[in-house]
Amino acid sequence: MYHYEALPAAEWFRRNRELAGFHNPARALYQTVRELVENALDATETYGILPTVYVRIGVVDEQRGWVSVYAEDNGIGIPGGEIPNVLGRVFYSSKYRVRQHRGIFGLGLKMIVLYAQSTTNRPVYVRSATLKSDKIYEYAIMIDTNSNSPAVLHRQEYPNKYKWHGTAIKVCIEGNWHAAKRRIEEYLRRTAIVAPYAEIIFRGPDVSLRLGRRTTKMPPPPEEGLPHPKTVDADMLKQMVRENGSATLLELLAGNFDGVGRETARAFAAWAGLAPDARVSELSQDDLVRLAERMRQYEGWRRPRAVSLSPAGAELLELGARAILGAEAVFAVTRKPESYGGHPFIVEAAVAWGGQIPPAERPLLLRYANKIPLLYDEGVDVARKVADEFSWQNYRVRFPAPLAVIVHVCSTKIPYVSAGKEAIADIPEIEREIRLALRDAAKKLRAYLARREREAELVEKYVSLAKYVDEIAHSLAVVTGASRARLAESLHRLIERKIGMTAEELLRRA
Amino acid sequence: MYHYEALPAAEWFRRNRELAGFHNPARALYQTVRELVENALDATETYGILPTVYVRIGVVDEQRGWVSVYAEDNGIGIPGGEIPNVLGRVFYSSKYRVRQHRGIFGLGLKMIVLYAQSTTNRPVYVRSATLKSDKIYEYAIMIDTNSNSPAVLHRQEYPNKYKWHGTAIKVCIEGNWHAAKRRIEEYLRRTAIVAPYAEIIFRGPDVSLRLGRRTTKMPPPPEEGLPHPKTVDADMLKQMVRENGSATLLELLAGNFDGVGRETARAFAAWAGLAPDARVSELSQDDLVRLAERMRQYEGWRRPRAVSLSPAGAELLELGARAILGAEAVFAVTRKPESYGGHPFIVEAAVAWGGQIPPAERPLLLRYANKIPLLYDEGVDVARKVADEFSWQNYRVRFPAPLAVIVHVCSTKIPYVSAGKEAIADIPEIEREIRLALRDAAKKLRAYLARREREAELVEKYVSLAKYVDEIAHSLAVVTGASRARLAESLHRLIERKIGMTAEELLRRA
Question: Residue A87: in which H helix or E strand, if any?
Fold first, then answer.
């Protein structure tokens, strides 16, 4: 009756693999490709390397439903000694830092290893070399779920003659290529659109994609950041105090928060009625809760800096919208950085209209998070909620309308609803920014639609005036003896001056 | 550049609390109530105790948005020495067993503790006594996230004079009562409907609910079960071999799987061409993978037993549908047990028609998992997918229709999409059973709708015949001299015999 037990983290995740997106053979294959591609991009662009990513899916055993997935990048590599832990220990990662990553939970690789061993019982093969390394390391790894530690089945070192760097991973899993194919293709295409500086080569059993590099210009890699003081919580503060016990309040504030120097720290302390030279170790728990609250209330902090973030930029978003959607018009905005729970974030949004967008009763939605296209679980994403609740009628949109919305959230920590990373939770701060971004973009759309309506009216006016031109020109020619053609020409010019543009312009615009 | 670190499990979950449903103050309050109520029900009905659950929400500090949640049950209690770990250590629980629980991940209480300390930095207060215990134990607990271990701030023992047993938990969190109120009420009402043997008393700042016990008949408590051999995986098998190294194949199979005795084990071994007396410790990794595959392929296993499950029953589902939906007609089915990944499960479904159900373009859906009403994230639930893809037109349903679907999945392990436990993942086996359950229930609906149509036709026929009765009776009376009233009466009887029921019956049914 009273039986309690502790589970090792790896065993807990093995048993609950749906939580990380490994529901069934189709979704698991999709998730495997995603995690490998995202690791590859994180290992390259984050460090200023132009990414070249090669992915191959092969059928290992048709009857048993076994497939192999191979992914190789030219990234910074994993140090030889770290490889076993990075693949074989849950909650061990390079991703727990204040910097924008595609990966967030540091869980992807381990879930692939766990899923592989649950379904085919095959180890994962890894080959990696760090920048300028003399050696290439090769491992075959499984996870001992009872101890949450890596089981190394094979290990070898090679001389790195050509100074190759990067990581190559090969895995054999139960997977349904047929069912996952369409999504994998869409995922890769949409990834390439927001990362035009990446070269992505994909070979599947019956598909080949070569998504070439379209630019060598990369956004500056995100720097490592500090938590923003406005959205810190008591527990985070407690931890900082533990690590900086001997510091004064001033030292704590000025050294550990984004955009807070000694001057800002002093101004805050004065506002909050706190002594700047108080030892933080002497603060009680209640003091810390109060401090966190005061920090949240203070309006004098600087806006979060974007150094740890890497937005796609409005321009890229517009380009992408045209490429994916074939829209007639796109209006994109990049909002200023904000933060929630200490994590800075930026919302970018685009509103696309017409062209090949099919008219529908609600806006078509394309979602991205840290440049990852999100293809599943739209129904629970905060962006879907905002797009549906938005007052489109105030922006001259009447449904059914050929309207699409693109939302890109980037953050040092995307608040995903599940570890499968497919939907963003409804955090009030993020919801608000998405709404404001849509409002900004929709205003431009409204102006565009208003101009279109005005132009449509002008065309009508032109047409209704122009049809009398010949008649009037004829009558005038009879009376004045002037050339009828010249009179008609003048009359047309008159109308054009009246409506403010030439007939050609008008027709081109309509 | 090459910085890696290990996170303690508690810290990982603290940072990623959205994964467990603690997104924002409204959702977190809802989630807290849910976890406490579900623990209370698990601690009572699972052990044959009629549940009495008392829940109170109070405003602690309006301005700061702090609320208190108190929950008390009359369950089996937590042994004094286990209380710190059960509340203060992630991955420590009584829920990792093959038996139907509302709780699945053993994570709920810990997430409440983590959320409380992140937002208000207040400990969680627990008072508990096990059955027949001489003592009541009281603790104030927080979690040291750096070591994933409980921090006990206060501990006291009282004599248990009146042999009280159960658990009482009080917590102070940041919560938005106003925004969560409606969902919390709906959650409690719908919980009471599938647990009519429970008494649930709720007091909120401006709401009081007393959901009284409507029956003292409880379903038999689920027993502890074993994994089903048909859906075992290689990794699970590997672990079993590790724990039963010296056993023969026969012993391994006959002792560790649901419904497998020596006879069944021998029959399987013969079919699979394996030696029943082979030592399992001598099996290679590949042998184990093959064994798992053969076990999945074998058709001779017994159907999973339902002893570890506790379905609501078709009757209760019908009752619930009428109570919640005010439906005119309800058709419920309970499917036979099936299994996925070693976990037995049962799908129950009801199709409800008419009455107060508003006609809509797709079926209204009510979801339950292990008797828990699921109110969020419907858009990603497998039941939504099945209900939307179902060929309703084959069952005489034309949309818009006043149609509702209730789906209840119970299992020793519900494959939730996220640790917030709001949506069931699309596991092929479960998807199939939901589809079959809907088909079974929809067949009954079709028969009902067909009967209704037939009856509508009869009414029409009756009406069209009856309108000539007076005229004919008059003519006959003139010719025969018989009583016109009696003639009319006979004619009505004639029509009734012809259509097979009396006018009263017909009108009552129509």
Answer: helix A83-88
What pLDDT does A419 receive? Answer: 85
8 Å CB contact between B41 and B214: no
Q: Per residue in A119-142, pLDDT tens?
A: 998 999 999 999 999 999 999 999
Is the model's pLDDT at B468 over the cut of 80?
no
B201 pLDDT band (50/70/90 cuts)?
very high
- Residue ranges of chain A with pLDDT lower than 70? 1, 96-98, 476, 498-499, 503, 506-510
Q: Which of A47, A285, A377 sits opposite B1 (nearest CB)?
A: A47
- In the chain, the amino acid numbered A384 is R
Rounded to a whole number, what is the distance in Å from the CA of B180 to chain A's nearest CA? 14
Peptide bond into A205 cis (omega under 30): no
**Non-local CB neighbours of B338 within 8 Å, separated by 6+ positions:** B303, B304, B344, B345, B346, B347, B429, B433
CA distance B25 to B175: 4
- Alpha helix segments (H runs only) across B273-391: 285-297, 314-325, 382-389
- Give the integer Cα–Cα distance in Å for B98 and B308: 7
Q: Which DSSP category does B65 fall into?
A: T
Which of the 8 DSSP states describes residue B181? H
Q: Which residues pair with B408 in a beta bridge?
A: B348, B368
| CA-based nearest residue in chain B for residue A380 | B377
The complex scores an ipTM of 0.84
For residue A235, give the chain B residue with the closest CA. B118
Cβ contacts of A19 on chain B, cutoff 8 Å: 19, 416-419
Taking residues B456-472, what's their average pLDDT? 75
Look at residue A507 in the predicted model and tell me its pLDDT: 65
DSSP secondary structure, B467-500, as one string: HHHHHHHHHHHHHH---HHHHHHHHHHHHHHHHT
- Among chain B residues, CA nearest to A293: B64
